Amino acid sequence: MQRAMAGRGNEVLTIGDLAARTGLSVSAIRFYEAKGLVHPFRTAGGQRRFLRSDIRRLSFALIAQQLGFTIPQIAAELGGLPEGRTPTQADWRRISKGVLRALDDRIAALERTRGNLENCIGCGCLSLRRCALYNPEDRAAKAGPGPRYAMG
Amino acid sequence: MQRAMAGRGNEVLTIGDLAARTGLSVSAIRFYEAKGLVHPFRTAGGQRRFLRSDIRRLSFALIAQQLGFTIPQIAAELGGLPEGRTPTQADWRRISKGVLRALDDRIAALERTRGNLENCIGCGCLSLRRCALYNPEDRAAKAGPGPRYAMG
DNA sequence: CCTTGACCTCAACTTAGCTTGAGGTTGTAG
DNA sequence: CTACAACCTCAAGCTAAGTTGAGGTCAAGG
């Protein structure tokens, strides 16, 4: 009843194995294949077989996605990995540079937002432009359209 | 031809004014009203009229959205503001607590991710679980489903 | 008063990122 | 050798967050 996990100590994984290992649903993995994030080969019967390095590809994809990369963007990044051989440390390091930079940008932006927000909560204005909107004459109205100052 | 901006030095804003002041599109503001983020009253002719404090409500919404809050969640947070009177500093401070906490959580999570990623790039594994997946025996396979360890 | 830009409603469309269902096939434990 | 879980394809559906368009109304400058 409990069929051996295909690829226990083996080279290849079924889609179900990969799902178990990544936490993704089977349908999501098929979807990701369609989008070019992984390129499984097929058995004679037409079933997908994945390499263990595909776990890493998908893990990378999940992280990048969290950082706001779209699937096509991630596919492009992953395109930098060798398809034939298992990627080396150097391959991953290269690929991960963009993600690390995005991560740093994101952290910096959030910290900026945090500072602005704390300042502006102090005066209750939430305008994020030096509390200009809080002034009774509403002088800031002349300075052109709105907020979004916290996020830039 | 250039009609006076309704509510220049005035109490109320038209939807167009509010759009100009928040940087949002008119259609987005109507959409946000439908979702309960603002509650304009109507003129005899059926047109929306907003209070200046609605600028702050929408600014708050934009910030919260950036932090990953959904519109219903934001509507719930904004529900904590008084509808009758203009919110005070204390009101906004109270409301903003949740956002600040979310912001801190988000920053912490990203920093954790950053650390994990840098570590794991070192060994090229990207498994984010102490490089367990990189070991040739694949012992980690027994430890249950997959990654997502970076984001937690 | 009249013109006309700004406003109104409602329904349908959009994009991203998947999920669900129908109907059929594969492959391995027993 | 067979049962049956796991796999396959393809089309349709879903949610979030808006946008777009058709067809019509309002209100303020001249």
What can be said about this structure in brief?
Two copies of one chain form a homodimer. In chain A, 49% of the residues lie in helices and 5% in strands.
Give the largest interface pair and sizes: A-B, 55 and 56 residues
The portion of residues forming beta strands of chain A comes to 5-15%
- Quaternary structure type: homodimer
The parts of chain A where pLDDT drops under 50 for at least 5 residues are 4-8, 128-152
Rounded to an integer in angstroms, the radius of gyration calculated over CA atoms of chain A is 23 Å
What kind of sheet is the major sheet of chain A? 3 strands, antiparallel
Shape descriptor of chain A: elongated
Number of strands of chain A: 3
Helix content of chain A: 40-55%
How do the SSEs of chain A run, as a string of H and E? EHHEEHHH
Overall pLDDT confidence of chain A: 77
N-C termini distance of chain A = 56 Å
* Count of helical regions of chain A: 5
Please identify the structural class of chain A as seen in this structure: mainly alpha
Strand order of the largest sheet of chain A: 1-3-2
Question: Which keywords apply here?
Answer:
49% helix; 5 helices; 152 residues; homodimer; three-stranded antiparallel sheet; disordered C terminus; elongated; mainly alpha; DNA-binding
